[in-house]
Predict the structure.
Amino acid sequence: MILHTENINNKVKNGLYIVATPIGNLSDITLRALEVLKKSDYVLCEDTRISKNLLERYEIKSKLIANHKFNEKKNLSKVIDILKSGSIVSLISDAGTPSISDPEQYWLTNVLVMT
């Protein structure tokens, strides 16, 4: 599995993307974040109700997968299979950058080890 940390030729490639989301004002999102989210097959998020607001505002049709402390272990193998199938997956938090102090920290650490 490839964790993308740089943008080569401005193309979104298959793999896992960690995407920062706005804190507060939904307009405070980067164009690159919107591009990645629009091209993602799946978006892993803490709370689908909150993430849905962001995605609907920008007409993003990616499938949401709830990923929080109550299901993170269950989701791990499912998402690894999705990544191995060649999909584009974005990991977001309710606000800010995922995995700093969010449930995604456990998940991200394990997905990197298992792929």
Q: What stands out?
A: The mean pLDDT is 84. The chain has one domain: 15-114.
